[in-house]
Amino acid sequence: GENVEQHPSTLSVQEGDSAVIKCTYSDSASNYFPWYKQELGKGPQLIIDIRSNVGEKKDQRIAVTLNKTAKHFSLHITETQPEDSAVYFCAALLPGKLIFGQGTTLQVKP
Amino acid sequence: EADIYQTPRYLVIGTGKKITLECSQTMGHDKMYWYQQDPGMELHLIHYSYGVNSTEKGDLSSESTVSRIRTEHFPLTLESARPSHTSQYLCASSSGSSYNEQFFGPGTRLTVL
What we know:
The structure holds two protein chains of two kinds.
Chain A: E1 4-7, E2 10-14, E3 19-25, E4 32-38, E5 45-51, E6 56-59, E7 62-67, E8 72-77, E9 86-94, E10 97-100, E11 104-109
Parallel strand pairs in A: 2-11
Antiparallel strand pairs in A: 1-3, 3-8, 4-5, 4-9, 6-7, 7-8, 9-10, 9-11
Chain B: E1 4-7, E2 10-13, E3 19-25, E4 31-37, E5 43-51, E6 54-57, E7 65-66, E8 76-78, E9 87-94, E10 103-104, E11 108-112
Parallel strand pairs in B: 2-11
Antiparallel strand pairs in B: 1-3, 3-8, 4-5, 4-9, 5-6, 7-8, 9-10, 9-11
């Protein structure tokens, strides 16, 4: 069936270092891949997304890359800050619904 | 900040009670969703709606039911709550565009004793 695998489940980095979270998806029909950040006590919020017609997208310290052939996409956060600490979810769009990855807990140590 | 609201934010009830979790959005979105988020954080789609009078079951089987009588309102009901229903419930909405950015509410943390 349709699924999205996300790794790692937890990630701890030192402030200022980079963080990378990777996802793979199973359905080649997926054409939209958002990333969500969920802070404690809040619902997930969209931080960046990428569509299948591009290979990379960047927004300040956040970037996402997509390899449609290999069916994987990654989130890159550079110059991490303590406020980046949260749970991050990747997702892949199928007709009518998003399939979410399992989530990655990112801890940025000051 | 997304205009999607959930009440209550926290609810502790006894087994067998009927409860309704409220979700409202003021963005005029046609599509609305309910997710269950377990302690391991994974989001599971339990219900969705494409518009008024449209409701569908999601990927995760749930004993809850939903209704969509008005565009802005998508309540979720449990007729008889059990401890296994203890979880975080997240409501989301999106517009009718093909790229399905979903806006999430803050969630309801339900505990059934």
